[in-house]
Structure formats: structure tokens, C-alpha cells
TrEMBL record, chain A:
<keyword id="KW-0560">Oxidoreductase</keyword>
<keyword id="KW-0411">Iron-sulfur</keyword>
<dbReference type="GO" id="GO:0051537">
    <property type="term" value="F:2 iron, 2 sulfur cluster binding"/>
</dbReference>
<dbReference type="InterPro" id="IPR036922">
    <property type="entry name" value="Rieske_2Fe-2S_sf"/>
</dbReference>
<feature type="domain" description="Rieske">
    <location>
        <begin position="6"/>
        <end position="102"/>
    </location>
</feature>
<dbReference type="InterPro" id="IPR012747">
    <property type="entry name" value="MocE_2FeS"/>
</dbReference>
<dbReference type="InterPro" id="IPR017941">
    <property type="entry name" value="Rieske_2Fe-2S"/>
</dbReference>
<keyword id="KW-0479">Metal-binding</keyword>
<keyword id="KW-0001">2Fe-2S</keyword>
Automatic annotation (TrEMBL), chain B:
<keyword id="KW-0560">Oxidoreductase</keyword>
<dbReference type="Pfam" id="PF14759">
    <property type="entry name" value="Reductase_C"/>
</dbReference>
<protein>
    <submittedName>
        <fullName>Ferredoxin reductase</fullName>
    </submittedName>
</protein>
<dbReference type="InterPro" id="IPR016156">
    <property type="entry name" value="FAD/NAD-linked_Rdtase_dimer_sf"/>
</dbReference>
<dbReference type="InterPro" id="IPR023753">
    <property type="entry name" value="FAD/NAD-binding_dom"/>
</dbReference>
<keyword id="KW-0274">FAD</keyword>
<feature type="domain" description="Reductase C-terminal">
    <location>
        <begin position="317"/>
        <end position="405"/>
    </location>
</feature>
<dbReference type="InterPro" id="IPR028202">
    <property type="entry name" value="Reductase_C"/>
</dbReference>
<dbReference type="InterPro" id="IPR050446">
    <property type="entry name" value="FAD-oxidoreductase/Apoptosis"/>
</dbReference>
Length: 104, 407
């Protein structure tokens, strides 16, 4: 894997069990902080309609789309049932020196 | 092997069919629908699909039905249920046996007395309706919309995007008088006015006349609206005739219990065609016309066709998109004693509706894009948990609703 690590934000800029939007090079991502304080990243747009997931609600390891409540496991990208049936792409994330990086 | 038959291939019927397989049912599943398309989502018909002139947004493509072993009979109508013989009879005379039957027949637009759709009068329920309406929505044309409910208003917004001019006629003093707080309806109405829609509230129709090249609406105060097309958006009526003819109980929809069973335990009903008791609201019997309800009940019906015994205990939820605004409503607000407002900035706000004991029974919100979505979802959880949140905390945007849920 030849990931390039891109700086996202300071680790404490994302609340626990929450998500933020991150735009980079014309693409949009959703960056999550889980209740266990781990960080994760997926494509930013829902696979049902192109809606920013960062406006949605994080519950445990699930992100729920704000538009029609489609659900994904943000750790694996797995679509968890109607109306979403296409999985989300996930990306590696690392936290170094209090900063979150996404591997693209 | 058991034979399960689903009548009505809409959102609800299709979700039920897939849910049966997901839950491990290995008998036959036959999904029968009058429309010639595979099951598709209706919400886009008045919104983005209408503007784009897009084809139907299918719930699933043909391969997914084939892979799940679901037989879809499109363009076929069930005419009769033979309960004694446990068969349904189709329009072409075919009889299909069932062990369990699900009625997901949906609803159809209410029509004006003595006035059928056709010519320059239309209603919006199906993809074919949308195609017909869209042909009239061109730059410089004029459409009249009767009814200031969700469908009429969404259609007005889409028509404006396509460059048509719009007159919307509502008989009541304001738009969205059913289920939407006046504060939110006022914002919707003023936005439509700002976008150039002529909104006539409190306007009673005295007569409708089709003439060559136009349809004319005469109002009781003498005003005349001339349009290329009149779209009637005055609500929907549940498709209950089949159930009624079979002797099933009907009460503003096919009457089902909390497990979605009709008065015949082998026949269930779900979605827009049913009325059912809502445990969160004192088992009050309601009929909802909502996309998520159709989905949830379809899934629940599937579980209960398999003997699951799960009761329906959801919070009603609805959304509407108009221009760049989205409105969301969770719960039922009638019966509210107090309302608390929370401002989210950039014009977005939420209203929390509490009953006399301070229990949160509904929340509604409007804003740009999905500004209110997350908080409405959290409110929905508070409603489901029958919470009595502190009104001051609800009003304070700096208090995260999530913390109220944990409290
Ligand atoms: C234009 C429009 C916009 C909407 N927007 C929203 C929105 O923004 N948000 C929201 O929450 N909800 C919205 N809704 C409501 C939502 O689409 C419905 O609640 C949902 O479609 C109900 O699904 P259903 O399967 O119960 O019924 P339907 O979708 O009505 O499907 C029932 C199907 O059964 C078929 N049928 C009936 N009788 C028979 C028979 N005897 N034999 C065979 N087939 C039969 C019908 O032809 C139909 O195809 C909208 C609806 C419309 C029309
Ligand atoms: S856009 Fe995400 S669930 Fe529909």
C-alpha cells in the first residue's frame, strides 16, 4: 500500500462518538471518533443519494445518514439495511502527536 | 413448502419480500403489483426526479429479485381474496394459493367529487403521473396546484425550478395545516412566495372547467386562474376495497393490530393502506403516509408472517424537501401543551412539543440541507423513550441533545 497520509485535524476537534466532514483534493470524506476513542474514515457521501454523512448521527459504531436514516458500520463501511444496500469505502486513519491523518 | 403472497409492489411490499428472505424464509414469495414498473421510491417523484426527468428510482433491480428468489408479477392486479380457499385471484383469472398473505396496497390520490383525472387535470402518485405532469412543466407554462400539502408544495418548488409559473390554491387559511406547526408552515409559504409561486390561501374553488388549451379554476371570490394543467393534491385514500370485499375490518385503512394482523390471522397488512394502534400515543389508531413507515412495517410484517410476534412501536417520521430546505417531523404534535424552540443558526430551528405532563411527544424542524436532521433523530429517541426533558435544556443549542438521552 502506498498510502499518502493527509493531515485532517487535531484529534480533539472531533467529539467522542461523533463525525466531521473533511474535504481534500475535490473529494469529501467523513472522519469518525468512536466511543472507544478510535478514529475511522469513510467516503463522505451516502451511497443511497449523495448526502453528506457528517450531518448524520453516530451511535456506537454506526453512522446514520441524515436524509433517510440509512445506516453504515463506519469501521467496516458495511451497509446495514434499507434503504442503503451499497457499502461505503473506508480509509486508514492514524493519530500522531494529537493529529489525525487519513491515508489516501 | 409455504407460499407467501404480497399484494402491492410498492415500497412496503418490496421491503417485506426482501426481509422475508433475510429472515431465512425458504418458501415461495410472489409480489404482485398493478404498475408496470418494478417497485420504486415515490418521494423523488415530486422532487429531484421530477426536475431531472429521471426514470423510476427502483427499490432493487431485477437481478436482486432474481437472486433472492422473489417472483415479481408486474402489471397484474389482484381482484379478489378467497379466504376460505386461501387463494388470490388476478385480473387474468389466475388463482394463486397462499399460506400467508400481506396486503401492501398503498393509497391513491383523493379526487375532486365528480371529476376524474385526465386531460388537463392530474394527480401525482405514480411515475407515470410524474411523466405526464412533467410534460407541462416548461419555461413559460403555467400550472395550477390545488392543495397546499406536501405533494402540492414540493411540486410547486420543482415546477419553479423548471421555469413554469405556479398558482397554488389552498382552501384553508394556511398551507400544511395537517401535522405541521404554523411557525414552520409560515416559513414554507413565504419561501414559495419569494420563489415566485402565487400562494392563495383560504381560497375556495367554485368551479373547474377544461377548455381548448387551458383549464380554468374559478374561485368563490370571483377570481379566475387559467393554467395549462391543474394538479390536484388534496390527500390520499387508502386502497382498502380488496380487504373490504373479503370481509376484513376496515377503519380509515385496513385495520390491523400491533402485530399488523388483520381480522384474519393469516392476512397481514402494512404501509399506507393500514391503520394501526400507536403504543406511544395511548394506542390511538392512525394511518400514516410515510416512506419510512412503509419500510418499517414491511420489515415487521415479514417478521410476523414468520411468526415473530414483534409489535410495531415506532415514532412516526416524515421529511419534505422544498428548494434547498428540508423539513423533518418526528412524532405526533397534536395534544401538545407547550412548544419549545431551539435555534440552530442560519435560520434553521427546531420545535419541541411537550404534553401537559412535560413528556416530549413530537419535534419538528426546518432548515437548509440537513441542518435539523441529527437533532430530530435524537428527539425521536427521546420520544421513543417517553422522556420528560428539561425545557430549558431543549431550548439551549449549546446543550447537546445526546446528553439528554444519556441523562
Ligand atoms: C409524490 C410523492 C412524494 C412523497 N414524498 C414523501 C416524502 O418526502 N417523505 C415521506 O416520508 N413520504 C413521502 N411520500 C409517501 C411515500 O411514498 C408512501 O408513504 C409510500 O410510498 C407508501 O408505500 P406503500 O408500499 O405502502 O404504498 P404504495 O407506494 O402506494 O404502493 C402500493 C402499490 O400497490 C399497488 N396495488 C394496489 N392495489 C393492488 C392490487 N389489488 N393488486 C396489485 N397491486 C395493487 C399499487 O399500484 C402500488 O403500486 C410521497 C408520496 C408521493 C406520492
Ligand atoms: S441519502 Fe442516505 S439514506 Fe438516503
Amino acid at each position: 500500500m502506498s498510502d499518502t497520509w493527509i493531515e485532517v485535524c487535531a484529534a480533539d476537534e472531533i467529539d467522542e462518538e461523533d463525525v466531521i466532514r473533511f474535504d481534500h483534493a475535490g473529494r469529501t470524506f467523513a472522519i469518525y471518533r468512536s466511543p472507544e476513542d478510535t478514529y475511522h474514515a469513510t467516503d463522505g457521501l451516502c451511497t443511497h443519494e449523495k448526502i453528506h454523512l457528517a450531518d448524520g448521527l453516530v451511535m456506537d459504531h454506526i453512522i446514520e445518514c441524515p436524509k433517510h436514516n440509512g445506516r453504515f458500520d463506519y469501521k467496516t463501511g458495511e451497509a446495514k439495511g434499507a434503504p442503503v444496500c451499497v457499502d461505503l469505502r473506508t480509509y486508514p486513519v492514524k493519530v500522531e502527536g494529537g493529529t489525525v491523518f487519513i491515508g489516501l | 413448502m409455504a407460499d407467501f403472497v404480497i399484494v402491492g409492489a410498492g415500497e412496503c411490499g418490496a421491503r417485506a419480500a426482501f426481509a422475508l428472505r433475510e429472515k431465512g424464509f425458504d418458501g415461495t414469495i410472489t409480489l404482485i403489483g398493478s404498475e408496470t414498473h418494478l417497485p420504486y421510491e415515490r418521494p423523488p417523484l415530486s422532487k429531484e426526479a421530477l426536475v431531472a426527468g429521471a426514470g423510476p428510482k427502483l427499490v432493487a433491480d431485477a437481478e436482486r429479485y432474481a437472486a433472492a428468489g422473489i417472483a415479481v408479477l408486474s402489471g397484474r392486479t389482484v381482484l379478489e381474496i378467497d379466504r376460505a380457499g386461501r387463494r388470490v385471484r388476478l385480473g387474468d383469472g389466475t388463482a394463486l394459493p397462499y399460506d400467508k398473505l400481506l396486503l401492501a396496497t398503498g393509497a391513491r390520490p383523493r379526487t375532486l367529487p365528480g371529476m376524474a383525472c385526465g386531460g388537463r387535470i392530474a394527480a401525482l402518485r405514480s411515475h407515470d403521473d410524474a411523466t405526464r405532469i412533467r410534460a407541462h412543466l416548461v419555461e413559460g407554462s403555467h400550472v395550477a396546484i390545488l392543495g397546499g400539502g406536501f405533494i402540492g408544495l414540493e411540486l410547486a418548488a420543482s415546477a419553479r425550478k423548471l421555469g413554469a409559473s405556479v398558482t397554488l390554491v389552498e382552501g384553508l387559511p394556511r398551507v400544511l395545516s395537517r401535522g405541521v406547526p404554523a411557525e414552520i408552515a409560515a416559513i414554507v409559504a413565504s419561501r414559495h412566495a419569494a420563489e415566485g409561486v402565487e400562494v392563495l390561501c383560504g381560497a375556495k374553488v367554485a368551479g373547474i372547467e377544461e377548455r381548448p388549451g387551458e383549464v380554468r379554476l374559478t374561485l368563490e371570490d370571483g377570481r379566475v386562474v387559467s393554467a395549462s394543467l391543474l394538479v390536484v393534491g388534496i390527500g390520499a385514500v387508502p386502497n382498502t376495497e380488496l380487504a373490504e370485499a373479503a370481509g376484513l375490518a376496515v377503519d380509515n385503512g385496513i385495520a390491523v393490530d400491533g402485530l399488523l394482523r388483520t381480522s384474519d390471522p393469516d392476512i397481514l397488512a402494512a404501509g399506507d393502506c393500514t391503520s394501526y394502534p400507536l403504543p406511544l400515543y395511548g394506542d390511538r389508531r392512525v394511518r400514516l403516509e410515510s416512506w419510512r413507515n412503509a419500510q418499517e412495517q414491511g420489515q415487521l410484517a415479514a417478521a410476523n408472517m414468520l411468526g415473530g410476534g414483534e409489535a410495531h412501536c415506532a415514532v412516526p417520521w416524515f421529511w419534505s424537501d422544498q428548494y434547498d430546505m428540508t423539513l423533518q417531523i418526528a412524532g405526533l404534535a397534536d395534544g401538545a401543551a407547550t412548544t419549545v424552540r431551539r435555534d440552530l443558526g442560519e435560520g434553521a430551528f427546531l420545535l419541541f412539543h411537550l404534553d401537559a405532563e412535560g413528556r416530549l411527544i413530537a419535534a419538528s424542524g426546518i432548515g437548509k440541507g440537513n441542518a435539523v436532521a441529527r437533532d430530530i433523530r435524537l428527539a425521536e429517541m427521546l420520544i421513543a423513550a417517553r422522556r420528560h426533558p428539561d425545557p430549558a435544556a431543549l431550548a439551549a443549542p449549546e446543550t447537546k441533545l445526546k446528553t439528554l438521552l444519556a441523562a
